[in-house]
Amino acid sequence: MRIDAAIALAELSPTHETIKALQRGVADDDYLVRYRSANTLLIYAGHDNTIDKHPLFEAIASPPNEADASPSHREAWADAGAALAAEALALLDSAAGHGAPPPPNRHIAR
Fold first, then answer.
1. Which residues, in sequence order, are CB contacts of 8 under 8 Å at separation 6+?
2. What is the distance between the alpha carbons of residues 63 and 52, in angstroms, rounded to a whole number?
3. What is the domain extent for residue 33?
4. How far apart are CA 67 and CA 50, in angstroms?
5. How many domains does the chain have?
6. Is 42 among the domain residues?
7. 105: exposed, middle or buried (C-beta count within 10 Å: 0-12, 13-18, 19+)?
8. Residue 104: pLDDT over 70
């Protein structure tokens, strides 16, 4: 269900609330939730690439088995989520500061 939510949010215009929810998704124990949440944040930030092409990919992809996740992995996931959310919020706030509507959704190759 969390994976479906992360995917579905890509279809909506970003809000502060959706960005924060996706930030939490990037720190989820489930890799696919982290992956889909990160991809949606990249869309919100105006990127054309998926997370696997982004420098933060290694942070959210490790470890391959969630059972092996350590506190340092969880911290890296949270840090990656914060960085991606900050980019998305900056674009959203920039558009709002200029009286513009939220950035349009831009679908990236999945």
1. none
2. 15
3. 2-56+76-97
4. 25
5. 1
6. yes
7. middle
8. no
* Amino acid identity, position 42: L
Q: Which tokens belong to 92? A: 């959203």
Which pLDDT tens digit goes with each residue over 36-63? 999 999 999 999 889 999 999 999 998 8
| Band of pLDDT at residue 66, cut at 50, 70 and 90 | confident
Write out pLDDT tens, residues 83-98.
Answer: 999 999 999 998 776 5
Q: How far apart are CA 68 and CA 48, in angstroms?
A: 31
CA 90 to each of CA 15, 56, 75, 94, 107: distance values in angstroms, whole numbers, following the listed order: 11, 18, 22, 6, 19
